[in-house]
Amino acid sequence: MTYQIAIIGASGYTGAELIRLIAEHPSMKIKHLIANSKAGQSMDQVFPHLRHLELPDLVTVAEVDFLAVDLAFCALPHKTSQEVISALPKSLKIVDLSADFRLRNAADYEKWYGNPHVAAKEQAEAVYGLSEFYREEIRAARLVAGTGCNAATGQYILRPLIKAEVIDLDQVILDLKCAVSGAGRALKENLLHAELSEGYHAYAVGGTHRHLGEFDQEFSAVAGRPVRIQFTPHLIPANRGILATGYVMGDPEIVYKTLCEAYAQEPFIHVLPFGQTPSTHHVRGSNLCHIGVAGDRIPGRSIVIGALDNLTKGSSGQALQNANLMLGLPETTGLTMAPLYP
Amino acid sequence: MTYQIAIIGASGYTGAELIRLIAEHPSMKIKHLIANSKAGQSMDQVFPHLRHLELPDLVTVAEVDFLAVDLAFCALPHKTSQEVISALPKSLKIVDLSADFRLRNAADYEKWYGNPHVAAKEQAEAVYGLSEFYREEIRAARLVAGTGCNAATGQYILRPLIKAEVIDLDQVILDLKCAVSGAGRALKENLLHAELSEGYHAYAVGGTHRHLGEFDQEFSAVAGRPVRIQFTPHLIPANRGILATGYVMGDPEIVYKTLCEAYAQEPFIHVLPFGQTPSTHHVRGSNLCHIGVAGDRIPGRSIVIGALDNLTKGSSGQALQNANLMLGLPETTGLTMAPLYP
Amino acid sequence: MTYQIAIIGASGYTGAELIRLIAEHPSMKIKHLIANSKAGQSMDQVFPHLRHLELPDLVTVAEVDFLAVDLAFCALPHKTSQEVISALPKSLKIVDLSADFRLRNAADYEKWYGNPHVAAKEQAEAVYGLSEFYREEIRAARLVAGTGCNAATGQYILRPLIKAEVIDLDQVILDLKCAVSGAGRALKENLLHAELSEGYHAYAVGGTHRHLGEFDQEFSAVAGRPVRIQFTPHLIPANRGILATGYVMGDPEIVYKTLCEAYAQEPFIHVLPFGQTPSTHHVRGSNLCHIGVAGDRIPGRSIVIGALDNLTKGSSGQALQNANLMLGLPETTGLTMAPLYP
Amino acid sequence: MTYQIAIIGASGYTGAELIRLIAEHPSMKIKHLIANSKAGQSMDQVFPHLRHLELPDLVTVAEVDFLAVDLAFCALPHKTSQEVISALPKSLKIVDLSADFRLRNAADYEKWYGNPHVAAKEQAEAVYGLSEFYREEIRAARLVAGTGCNAATGQYILRPLIKAEVIDLDQVILDLKCAVSGAGRALKENLLHAELSEGYHAYAVGGTHRHLGEFDQEFSAVAGRPVRIQFTPHLIPANRGILATGYVMGDPEIVYKTLCEAYAQEPFIHVLPFGQTPSTHHVRGSNLCHIGVAGDRIPGRSIVIGALDNLTKGSSGQALQNANLMLGLPETTGLTMAPLYP
């Protein structure tokens, strides 16, 4: 069987990444590509690297009959996403890539994103889309909220440790290095090649990055008590990749064993031999996450490092993984491509 | 049916690219990975980005029973390649990625590569592996010689024009810009990040680049008389990609029409709308070649530009395309992945 | 004596580069920094890398008493530049970095830039600012028009050859590779890091780049008859640098000798040993231009390659060189810094 | 007065950076350039970007009469450096850029560097070259040991806080991001452009990086009791720059005030407005260090970030600053150039 797919917000990087992946998916067909601001254009005008594919032209959301669609990916900016999704048929399966349905609590959403939530009903039914930890809920879900790319990376290295209670929950520091495509295709001065190349710096310092809302929600739920970590992201002159360096108080061997066991059966999460460190270059373009663990010279302290591709495992690949689950397909379908190296 | 594949020279970039592609190929299985200097190592030690794949450890060429292999890719340096290949079973199908069997004439080989050819018999039987122009010969071949990555790019933009006699054969200038992976994984000072990043320059100026041997052979054969073009390569601070800018004397509309017709049925070669120019970024990681044509302000002059990924269409992807032909498989099998962008 | 300097258009890259250079100049002091759109801001807000300098805040052009200024650099966009300059005191020495006064003929200006010229008087008095070739005129000038960065590079490698009549004037091809800062700090999609990194491509193909207006004017004047060259620029993933590869019909030894003699006394233009090729990395951040010459394998053809930094020798460094001449200072004052490598 | 300078180890990046700086220094003249392995070559062969300078050819150390030299910079690898320096005249002023004389205790040296120290006398007299904190000792010194580039960055952000006792000394985490030139011009696979570009990763994890020897020595001396910090370096795809992110337990306002006061009179160390973060791009090519402070959302925790250029303030610029002190020259002579941006 072939499922009919719509992509809403097809003119951004996560939209293009979805098209790249679905083009090779044996059970999905892209029926509609939606981008209100560029409706009427063909995809090769917006993304010349997709010109070899037979793709529908971009249309507005109003032009689409969603009842003939099996599943829609929504890759719109937050706030817009909830407005569009709340107007779609209630029977339509949706994977949302925005931040709009990640936080279960409306007050938390308003606190981190600055605007009140206008799709309370959808927010209530949405399932958090970190595939490896919400697998059964995602299988049964109608609406799945993809995690933030930074939030995913941080959770992959920390969640099993919090759940197993092998680290001090009040002493977790996450120093994250992310590539520029995480900021999207927006015209901002700091994203220009001339500004970014040869430069790197921290941003959203002091615990102001919005993905902290996800960390707080998820880590507290796992721990059964409030957990607040320290999190500082840095912008790195590269196009794809997130590297998260976690500093935790916990025995390195136990930390390592806990992560190995947690991910032993996971097809996409690979824990490296003890002491080895992952590189963003080694996962680029794939749905893989590499995790490395080392012990510090100070006893009782561990360094845990995770690497993934923000556009794939951190966003569009994760979204496709969730769609596979929602449609009853094997979870890894269309996601087994190896990284592009060099 | 699943074909058993051996890759000789698996520790270089073209070897790694072959593994990336074959891992997704439905009718091929990697049975042996051969790298004499790194025999005994596992692939994740040599290329950590391949650690998720179940791959055999690296072995020496002497350890392999080639009679149980259906096809071997040979990704060794030139000179070594001919020595190894001449010792393999005469029944084994081989795609060689080196320069050793590209030139049909032994004297030409010695002139451009500086050493006498020691596998005259194999040189005589080898078929030149530019898939789109030697398709039938490749189907019937036992030994196929992959083209040089620069030579392939130049031929894609010029061959149809030479054959159709729509340009002045004595006034062809090819200004080529290639990325660094074309030089391989060799430890050379000029390939260091600190040397190359932010810098670009010409090399092998004055008609000394070895791929001119291929241009001379092929263009002269197509034209039926000696053709010598001007060719200057430049090294660009990027990892993958070749951009070839051809300056020709010929009517732009006729040039454009000639190329459109030549590639109308080709799955991997795409001629852009007239006046548009290709970018290496738009073909990265794919087996695609994009071609653009524009007319100069000076009447009767055309600019023809081709872009491809040197490691894929320029080398390992082309090799797999040829292997598909040799094994009677659909030519595009395992090669339909879209480019990685951004 | 210390000259009081104003920089109009101080919030762009060429403005910042002027500040970098003048900060070390022993006889100049920056009195006013002007940027209408950012007036009221301090320079460390606009360019944090200049925060260690004691600089005046940005003001509007209306706030400045230009009678107390000895020389003004104008780094505004073309069209705006002529409007601003025509309203400045007629006694003020000005070095303009825009395109507005480069073309002596008003019709040429309108043809290449699409708008009629509104400062005919200033256009008539302006001197073309290619320092090495208009030295005496610049010394006597009130208004100097800085050359385009691409136009400067092309002229450095070709002008002496045209003047000496050692090449075929109807067969000149210039393939140019420029870095991204040449496009300024504008918010354009194709200048984003994610779009440009790992990608390179031609643009303004077919003889449509505006710097052709300068080439036509200057080369024709030197030759004493109309000269039209072929010129194709390419955008390269680097921040600074222009590499111009010229293909000419002329004897390599004569070409080389002509260039060596032309630049024997020039402090900033260096001709490399015959057969060596320049790199943009070797001139970055300096006011130097490196030139290399090689003979092609086809007799009677030469390849001439020039490299300079578009923001320094191609723009702000050249402007300071001209200002030194206009103020009677030694020409190299403040311009002797070595390139930054790596 | 002009001082006669020798540079031992002139063929590496720190040697080239010294030449770049000294070429503009009004009171120094490069008399000898020494590089045993490349003796006989001219500098433009080794570093083409220096071809415009009149420089002596490279010679061996044995060829130089050091009695006619006022001060020597030694930019050799550690271990070699102590062997060469111990054989130089005892009256010669020396700034060593290697690690050989940074650690005052011979056992510490052997522990971190793996070989016994063979120049105990020189080790005993050497002064630690962190200019801002050893100014008077450096003025009186004959032999100064330049700090490690990572060690310098970490000390700039942490030393005043340790001295003022405003942070918890047992809870300091330093997450450092360094560019590739810090690894020198060595031919190592992981320094190739194709390996590094688009990739970043941690290395020397777990407290194994040698610069920890310096941190331990200096921080313990400042605190008057043993201090051991956590330190994890990461390699970033850029050529120049170190960004050090320090996580400390201490009140943000007090931390900020302490740093502001410590550096209020320092010409090269700039503390940004509270909450702003530095970028490596903003100090590139300069002798500046930018420091930013922010408070975390968790009360009582501060984030302190420092940025400098590893080749300038982290190495050769610092060395020249020390040489100025040793020769009685104004400390900032030859070091006031602004950063190169973009």
By CATH, the architecture of the largest domain in chain A is named: 2-Layer Sandwich
Our estimate of the beta-strand percent of chain A is 15-25%
What radius of gyration of chain A results from the CA coordinates? 19 Å
- Domain module tally of chain A: 2
Distance separating the two termini of chain A: 36 Å
User: Helical proportion of chain A?
Assistant: 25-40%
CATH class of the largest domain in chain A, named Alpha Beta
Structural class of chain A: alpha/beta
Query: Unreliable stretches of chain A, pLDDT < 50, 5 or more residues?
Result: none
What name does CATH use for the topology of the largest domain in chain A? Dihydrodipicolinate Reductase, domain 2
Can you put this structure into words, describing what you see?
4 copies of one chain form a homotetramer. In chain A, strands 3-2-1-4-5-7-6 form a 7-stranded parallel sheet, covered by helices on one side. Chain A contains 11 helices and 14 strands. Chain A folds into 2 domains: 3-147 and 313-326, Rossmann fold; 149-309, Dihydrodipicolinate Reductase, domain 2 (2-Layer Sandwich). Chain A is an alpha/beta fold. The longest helix of chain A is centred in the middle third of the chain and has 15 residues, at 149-163.
Break the fold down into its secondary structure elements and pairings.
Four copies of one chain form a homotetramer.
Chain A (H helix, E strand, L loop, with lengths): L2 E6 L4 H10 L5 E7 L8 H4 L11 E2 L11 E4 L5 H6 L7 E4 L9 H8 L6 H6 L1 E2 L6 H5 L3 E3 L3 H15 L9 E6 L14 H4 L4 E2 L8 H13 L6 E6 L6 E8 L2 H11 L6 E3 L17 E7 L5 E8 L3 H15 L16
Parallel strand pairs in A: 1-2, 1-4, 2-3, 4-5, 5-7, 6-7, 8-10, 12-13
Antiparallel strand pairs in A: 8-11, 9-10, 11-14, 13-14
